[in-house]
Amino acid sequence: MKEEFEKLVVAGKLERHQVEPLVLLTTSGYCMHRSWGFGKITTVDTVFARFTIDFQTKASHTMDLAFAAESLKPIAKDHILARKAADLEGLRQMAALHHLDLIKLVLKSYNGRATVDQIQQALVPDVIKDDWKKWWEAAKKELKKDGHFQVPLKKTEPIIYQVKEVSLQDRLMTDFRAAKGLKARILVAGEVLKNVPDLQDKTAAAAEIIPALNVEIATHQRTQPAVALEAIFVRDDLHEAAGLAMADTELTVRSIWSQDLKLGALLELMPAVKHHRTLESFKAANPDRWLEVIRTTLNTVSAKLCKECVQLLLHEQRIDVLKETLAKLISQHMASSELLLWLAKERSDAFADILGPEVFRAMLSAMERDQFNEKRSNRLRDFILADQQLLVELIGSADLEVIKDLTRALQLSPCFDDMDKRSLLARIVKSYPAIQSLISGETTKQENNLIVSWESLERRKDQYNDLVQKKIPANSKEIAIARSYGDLRENHEYKAAKEMQKLLMRQKSELEAQLVRARGSDFANPRTDIVSVGTRVQLTDLNTNLPENFIVLGAWDSNPEEGVISYLTPVAQSVLNKKAGEEVEFEMEGGAHKRYRIDTIAAYKTVETTEAAPATPAA
Question: Do 519 and 579 touch, CB atoms closer than 8 A?
Answer without folding.
Answer: no
